[in-house]
Amino acid sequence: MSRSAHPAGPRHADVLPEGHYSAPPADLNSLDPKVWSRTVSRDALGVVTVGGIDVKTLAEDHGTPAYVLDEADFRDRARAWRTAFGADADVFYAGKAFLSRAVVRWLHEEGLNLDVCSGGELATALSAGMPADRIAFHGNNKSTEEIERAVRAGVGRIVLDSFQEIVRVAHIAQSLGKRQRVQIRITVGVEAHTHEFIATAHEDQKFGIPLAGGQAAEAVRRALKLDGLELIGIHSHIGSQIFDMSGFEVAAHRVVGLLKEIRDEHGVELPEIDLGGGLGIAYTSDDDPREPHEIAKALTEIVTRECESARLRTPRISVEPGRAIVGPTAFTLYEVGTVKPLDGLRTYVSVDGGMSDNIRTALYDAEYSVALVSRVSDAAPMLSRVVGKHCESGDIVVKDAFLPSDLAPGDLIAVPATGAYCRSMASNYNHVLRPPVVAVHEGQARVIVRRETEDDLLRLDVG
Ligand SMILES: *Cc1c(COP(=O)(O)O)cnc(C)c1O
């Protein structure tokens, strides 16, 4: 997708950008439960509350911008995934979506496992008490030092991503007198994105070992020979923000095909198959994500069917949702600074954050929703673009949205579904301080990642 998918924009207020809301929503004050976390509603005064606390109180106590995370919703979603997949499968939360020690504890309590892909994520997981055997270590370029730490800690699995890494991990495990459980990540020639997938013979990307040309089979051959490794399964991750299950269907078919080859060649039935993450969420009212129980049912059926026809025992399935668990559980709370109407175009609404707290719009052309949350308004809708305070014209948070035309400096607005890949991809561009993550639960707000301070910035700058 192009980063400038809407180059011209509307020339007149009555011409709306293609592919966006064709008309303003009937009620600007309504909060679509698809995009807002589960405890969000408006109180009697029209102020939005979450976890029993209103956003004005949150802004006063914690400042803006702030990521506000609904703990009950997070736990509900984690539990729903766990329950949907049951005792014969494992759910690994993809830590890169958003990781903090509080989140690690919630996941542990709810019975989920955890994916990490760097020494920093591993350190966070271990320091919050996640048992090492419930951690999977990913990445296409894990350093020797990271591998050593992971093996020493006793992580449940390392997902091998290259021929060199097979040897590297085997060598390190052996030198530590260990046998490391590993999976091999393969690329099956399926690229899934939202409502489509593309099946190709090979994939031109940095992750995994291609199934094409017998490379994955060769990787398995090598891994099975090495004393330092215990090969437990095959891993495949096909994309992100996926709604359509047919990409998983093709991927599972190809992975099971490899399992069959392995059985035929080596007489070994590998006990596990990991189908990765990438399940989509609703960023706007136009998105219709599936529930975890539907996804679990579909994936289990696909794998079972494929294995039956290959006469293989059905392996233990694991999945790795990140966005689908944390994404919908948080919104970003901003204060409106400047409101700039551009005649015949749209109104630019500037907030006190921007691409430093949400890079996804600039990076992926992502779409978001937005609402006025500190009050209700009966004013007419105005076509708006929510922008940040950075020195970059691409510093856009929400490209096209309707906000009430009486919007004024000091109003609070919120962008929902920012739980995934926002704080975790946040930067200090323009020396802006990264916002806190405030978890709310049953009337209590608790800072789980504090706001950065200028002292934090200056501490790294050693002069
Ligand atoms: C990013 C990633 C995930 C999680 O993706 P989501 O879109 O957040 O569900 C899972 N597995 C692997 C290997 C990944 O790289």
Automatic annotation (TrEMBL):
Q: Note whether Hydrolase occurs among the keywords.
A: no
Q: How does it assemble?
A: Homodimer.
Residues reported in the UniProt entry to bind pyridoxal 5'-phosphate: G278, E320, P321, G322, R323, Y421
Mark the transmembrane ranges. Answer: none
Protein family: Belongs to the Orn/Lys/Arg decarboxylase class-II family. LysA subfamily.
Give the taxonomic lineage as stored in the record.
Bacteria, Bacillati, Actinomycetota, Actinomycetes, Kitasatosporales
Q: Which organism is it from?
A: Streptomyces galilaeus
Concerning Pfam families, the annotation shows: Orn_Arg_deC_N (PF02784), Orn_DAP_Arg_deC (PF00278)
Name of this protein: Diaminopimelate decarboxylase
Cofactor names from the entry are:
pyridoxal 5'-phosphate
Q: Which UniProt keywords apply?
A: Amino-acid biosynthesis, Decarboxylase, Lyase, Lysine biosynthesis, Pyridoxal phosphate
Q: Which InterPro entries match?
A: Ala_racemase/Decarboxylase_C, DAP_deCOOHase_LysA, De-COase2_C, De-COase2_CS, De-COase2_N, De-COase2_pyr-phos_BS, Orn/DAP/Arg_de-COase, PLP-binding_barrel
Q: Where is the Orn/DAP/Arg decarboxylase 2 N-terminal domain?
A: 72-327
